[in-house]
C-alpha cells in the first residue's frame, strides 16, 4: 500500500470521524473551524477542501430486529458514506456543502431495504474581526430507532434551518444569539406498525431562540451557558399536543480528543402544554458523558435526564433518566476490549389511563425500563480507525402487562476512535 493510499484511507476512516463529532457541537469558533478545515482535509479540489467518511453500523444478526413482542430474526446492515466540501475564503468566510446518502439492508425483510438521503449547506462570515454571522440548512432522512421508547425501526425526516450571530474574542470566547426552525416527520416501516400512526402524534415543527456563551478555560476546554425558548406545534394533534418550554443549561465541554473528553452539563427546564389538563414539568435536566484514559485503560460514565414526546397520545411526554458506564482495555497497540452498560427509566406523568389501551389494569403511574449490555473486540485498522466485533443484549420491562421484551444482537461496525 502506497503512502498516498494510506493517507487517503486514514482520512476516510479517521479524520472524518473527528469532523462529524465537531459538527455536532453547539458552536465552534471561527478560527478553530478555519484551522480544522484547512489542515485536516482528505484532499483538495481547486479551492475546495474535501472530507470523506464511511460509517458502517449494525452489520450483523438480531433475534428481534423490530424490538416487538413477536420477535422477528434477520440479518441487517446500515451503510452511510458522506462527502463534505468546504470553501474557505481569505480567512473571512467558510462555506460548505454536505451529501450523506444512507442504505438500510435487511436480508429476509426485503420490504425494509431502503435508500434514504441527507444533505446540508451553510457557512460562516467573519465581520470586523470579531463578529461571526452563520447560517445552515439541513435535510436528513434515515431509518433508525428514534427514541428509547420506540426501539423499532422508524423513518425519520428532519428539515432544519438555523442562524446565529456571535461575538468572539482573541481567546475564542464566544457570546451569541441563535435561532432555528426544525420540522420533523415520522413513518412506521416495521412489519407491525401498531394501532396509532406515528405521524398523527409525533409530526411537529419546533421553533427555538437561544443565547449561548462559551468561555475558553484552557486548550480546547470550554465552560458554556445556554438559555432558550422553544415552541412546539404538532401537525395533526395541535389542540392536545402544542406546548412551549424554557430551559437553561451550563457545564464544561472537554476536547474531542485527549485524556479527558466529553461534556458535563446540568440545567433546568420548564415545559408547559397549551391544552388544559395536560401534565407539565419543571425541574432538572442533564446531558453528561465523560471518558478518561490513562495507559492501557479508559473508563467512561454518563447521566442524562430530559423529556421526550411519547408515542402514546394519553401520555404526551415521558421523563427519561439514563445512566451509562463502561471501560476499555488495550492489551496491545492493535486491539481493544470494550464493555458498556446502559440503563434508562421512563416515567409517564398521568399515564394511569393507559390501562385501557394496554388491555389490563395498571397499578400506579406507568414506568418502563431498558437495560443494555454490550461487549466488543476492536482491531485497529488505520491510525485512530478500528473494526469492532460486537455482542449486545437489550431487556425492556414495563408496568403495563404484556409489554416486556428482549433482544440479542451480534455483528460488526467501524469506529473512528480507536
Short description:
This protein is mainly β and 418 residues long.
Structure overview:
With 418 residues, this protein is mainly β. The chain has a single domain (3-415), classed as Beta Barrel (Porin), CATH 2.40.160. It contains five helices and 19 strands. It has helices at residues 3-23, 30-39, 198-202, 238-241, 354-358, and strands at residues 43-45, 48-62, 74-89, 93-106, 114-127, 131-144, 154-168, 174-188, 204-218, 221-234, 243-253, 260-273, 281-294, 297-309, 317-332, 335-347, 367-382, 385-398, 405-415. The protein has an 18-stranded antiparallel barrel. The longest helix is centred in the N-terminal third of the chain and has 21 residues, at 3-23.
CATH architecture: Beta Barrel
Provide mean pLDDT, rounded. Answer: 87
Please identify the top-level CATH class: Mainly Beta
Q: Label the overall shape.
A: globular
Total domains: 1
The level of helicity is 10-25%
H/E topology pattern: HHEEEEEEEEHEEHEEEEEEHEEE
- Poorly predicted segments: 4-24, 353-360
List the helices and strands and how they pair.
Blueprint: H1 3-23, H2 30-39, E1 43-45, E2 48-62, E3 74-89, E4 93-106, E5 114-127, E6 131-144, E7 154-168, E8 174-188, H3 198-202, E9 204-218, E10 221-234, H4 238-241, E11 243-253, E12 260-273, E13 281-294, E14 297-309, E15 317-332, E16 335-347, H5 354-358, E17 367-382, E18 385-398, E19 405-415
Antiparallel strand pairs: 1-2, 2-3, 2-19, 3-4, 4-5, 5-6, 6-7, 7-8, 8-9, 9-10, 10-11, 11-12, 12-13, 13-14, 14-15, 15-16, 16-17, 17-18, 18-19
Amino acid at each position: 500500500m502506497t503512502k498516498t493510499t494510506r493517507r487517503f484511507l486514514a482520512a476516510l476512516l479517521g479524520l472524518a470521524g473527528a469532523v462529524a463529532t465537531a459538527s455536532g457541537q453547539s458552536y465552534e469558533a471561527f478560527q478553530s473551524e478555519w484551522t480544522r478545515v484547512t489542515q485536516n482535509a482528505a484532499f483538495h479540489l481547486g479551492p475546495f477542501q474535501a472530507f470523506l467518511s464511511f460509517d458502517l453500523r449494525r452489520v450483523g444478526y438480531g433475534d428481534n430486529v423490530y424490538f416487538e413482542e413477536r420477535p422477528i430474526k434477520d440479518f441487517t446492515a446500515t451503510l452511510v458514506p458522506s462527502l463534505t466540501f468546504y470553501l474557505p475564503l481569505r480567512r473571512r468566510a467558510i462555506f460548505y456543502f454536505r451529501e450523506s446518502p444512507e442504505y438500510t439492508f435487511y436480508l429476509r425483510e426485503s420490504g425494509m431495504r431502503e435508500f434514504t438521503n441527507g444533505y446540508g449547506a451553510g457557512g460562516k462570515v467573519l465581520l470586523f474581526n470579531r463578529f461571526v454571522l452563520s447560517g445552515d440548512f439541513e435535510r436528513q432522512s434515515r431509518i433508525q430507532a428514534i427514541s428509547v421508547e420506540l426501539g423499532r425501526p422508524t423513518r425519520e425526516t428532519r428539515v432544519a434551518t438555523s442562524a446565529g450571530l456571535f461575538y468572539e474574542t482573541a481567546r475564542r470566547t464566544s457570546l451569541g444569539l441563535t435561532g432555528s426552525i426544525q420540522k420533523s416527520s415520522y413513518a412506521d416501516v416495521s412489519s407491525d406498525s401498531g394501532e396509532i400512526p406515528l405521524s398523527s402524534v409525533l409530526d411537529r415543527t419546533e421553533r427555538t431562540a437561544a443565547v449561548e456563551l462559551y468561555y475558553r478555560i484552557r486548550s480546547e476546554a470550554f465552560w458554556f451557558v445556554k438559555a432558550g425558548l422553544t415552541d412546539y406545534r404538532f401537525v395533526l394533534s395541535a389542540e392536545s399536543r402544542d406546548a412551549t418550554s424554557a430551559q437553561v443549561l451550563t457545564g464544561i465541554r472537554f476536547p474531542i480528543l485527549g485524556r479527558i473528553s466529553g461534556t458535563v452539563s446540568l440545567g433546568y427546564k420548564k415545559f408547559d402544554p397549551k391544552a388544559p389538563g395536560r401534565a407539565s414539568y419543571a425541574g432538572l435536566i442533564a446531558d453528561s458523558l465523560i471518558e478518561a484514559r490513562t495507559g492501557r485503560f479508559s473508563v467512561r460514565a454518563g447521566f442524562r435526564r430530559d423529556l421526550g414526546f411519547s408515542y402514546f397520545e394519553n401520555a404526551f411526554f415521558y421523563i427519561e433518566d439514563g445512566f451509562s458506564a463502561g471501560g476499555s482495555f488495550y492489551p496491545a497497540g492493535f486491539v481493544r476490549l470494550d464493555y458498556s452498560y446502559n440503563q434508562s427509566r421512563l416515567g409517564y406523568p398521568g399515564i394511569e389511563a393507559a390501562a385501557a389501551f394496554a388491555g389490563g389494569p395498571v397499578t400506579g403511574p406507568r414506568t418502563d425500563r431498558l437495560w443494555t449490555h454490550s461487549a466488543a473486540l476492536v482491531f485497529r485498522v488505520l491510525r485512530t480507525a478500528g473494526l469492532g466485533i460486537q455482542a449486545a443484549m437489550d431487556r425492556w420491562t414495563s408496568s403495563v402487562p404484556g409489554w416486556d421484551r428482549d433482544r440479542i444482537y451480534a455483528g460488526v461496525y467501524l469506529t473512528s476512535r480507536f
